[in-house]
Amino acid sequence: MSEIKDLIQPDRAQDAIAIHLVDKDGFEAWAKTLSGPQRTALAAQKFDGSGYQVGIVPDGESWFAVGGVADPEELSSWCMARLAEALPAGTYRRAQGEPGKALHGWQTAQYRFIRYKDDKDAQGPRVLLTRDVARIAAAEAEARAVCLVQDLVNTPAEDMGPAQLEAVAEALAKEHGGKLKVTRGDALEQEFPMVHAVGRAAARSHAPRMIELTWGDPKAPKLALVGKGVCFDSGGLDIKPSAGMLLMKKDMGGAAHALALAGLVMGAGLKVRLQCLVPAVENAIAGNAFRPGDVLRSRKGLTVEIGNTDAEGRLILGDALALASEDKPELLLDFATLTGAARVALGPDLPALFTREDATAEALLAAGKDSDDPVWRLPLHQGYAEWLASDIADTNNAPANGFAGASVAGLFLDKFVGEGIDWAHFDTFAWRPNAKPGRPKGGAALGLRAAWRMVQDRFG
Predict the structure, then answer these.
(1) Which is catalytic among the residues 314, 432, 439, 449?
(2) Cβ count within 10 A of residue 168
(3) Residue 332: is its pLDDT beyond 60?
(4) Under a CB-based contact definition with an 8 Å cutoff, are residues 51 and 68 in contact?
(5) C-alpha gyration radius of the chain
(6) Do residues 438 and 77 make contact, with C-beta atoms less than 8 angstroms apart?
(7) Catalytic one among 24, 135, 240, 436?
(8) How far apart are alpha carbons 290 and 309 in whole angstroms?
(9) What angle (nearest 5°) sits at the alpha carbon of residue 339, between those of residues 351 and 185?
(10) Reported confidence tier of residue 122, pLDDT bands at 50, 70, 90
(11) For residue range 346-374, what is the model confidence (pLDDT) as tens digits?
């Protein structure tokens, strides 16, 4: 990825190019303060104050920029992102007021995934100044977390398998003084049998494992994070069509979210006892792959009949959620690219949110709105739990009908979460099919900032 460090800096009255922000309604009045040649320059650029427009205005021997926004008095995370994408390299400051929330989009707009090719269009950094110095460190940390998710999801499965996810967790543990425990092989089969079953058909280099990162004061309230780490999903023996496999490098997007959120928690020094769990597997096809109709045992002791090997994410999450529940966390959050049904219902932008507690849902919805990272609640309707019934096991992993797929997947996970635990499940897409200002096409952190805001409010 491109280096996003130091893209926002303290304003110490150093030389900088001014950026004026105007909306469409106020543009004509603002334009009257300009000279004739300046108005002509904007007219030639067809600038009228519409959202995300960028204009360059001559000013003697220099120039200033103008950006169209919805409301100059209340900036969103993305209001200045198009400016960061379009303006030449240099140092900038907002002419009136502070960037505020727009600091985030200014940074993420300059993200580039360049692991496999040079960025021939690179223009150099665009630096934004702010007098709100206290906000810089937190804004940088949040942008780095988003870019970490993008990097991990954008990386193809050959280079982002279970071992590479383990390396990311190890680097986070070293950076923040955490501890890492990884369970593999025979121990994995004994302790996390569903994780082992899903991942056992993969090549040795992509062998399954349970990654556990812990950090914090043992006496503090426990915060547990779980992320689905399916590094590639062929569908297993219930194989996906080629079109369905094309984006399956992103099926570890839940793990990317959980690891990025863990990094934010540790970096901010929140007073929590953190446990971050990533069951990491490749759902491959081989002679030892688990089969439709098999019955798997789980860490919790429940038996699971396999109705579909392509519903594997909920299996590995089941074992991870059971482990996370054993020490009764005050809050348990999981992230997963779990169901196509959530995408059919909500499209690519909105993670489906499932919670046991209404208050937790309300807090996450409010945090998503405040951080410009919206989520949408869907129901854990217990009336649908009967669709997971099995004639020969405690539960089936996939019902035969196609109804309410995201809710039914949530109900399956609910079976593995301990009684009385405050739990929220994010069914996120982790991918942006079309670029928007500050949000490039490709891997995407969707739900991360909402969760982080809520965690900060609760434990900060």
Answers:
(1) 314
(2) 21
(3) yes
(4) yes
(5) 24
(6) yes
(7) 240
(8) 7
(9) 110
(10) confident
(11) 999 999 999 999 999 999 999 999 999 99
Residue 127 has pLDDT above 80, yes or no: yes
Contact 416, 317 (CB under 8 A): yes
Q: How confident is the model at residue 2 (pLDDT cuts 50, 70, 90)?
A: low
Structure-token pair, residue 212: 């556990």
Q: Is 314 a catalytic residue?
A: yes
302: DSSP letter: -
Query: So what's the pLDDT on residue 5?
Result: 86
Q: How many CB atoms lie within 10 A of CB 221?
A: 15
Cα 405 to chain centroid, rounded: 21
φ, ψ of residue 385 in degrees (nearest 5) = -65, -25
Under 8 Å between Cβ of 76 and 101 = yes
Question: Under a CB-based contact definition with an 8 Å cutoff, are residues 165 and 280 in contact?
Answer: yes
CATH class of 141-459: alpha beta
Closest CA to 55 of 15, 96, 18: 18
**Mean pLDDT confidence for 416-434:** 98
Q: What pLDDT is recorded for position 440? A: 97
Domain 8-131 superfamily per CATH: Leucine Aminopeptidase, subunit E, domain 1 (3.40.220.10)
Give yes or no: 101 in active site.
Answer: no
State phi, psi for 305 to the nearest 5 degrees. -80, 135
Is there a shared CATH topology between the 8-131 domain and the 141-459 domain?
Answer: no
pLDDT for 211 beyond 60: yes
- The answer on pLDDT for 1 being more than 70 is no
**What average pLDDT score do residues 193-210 get?**
98
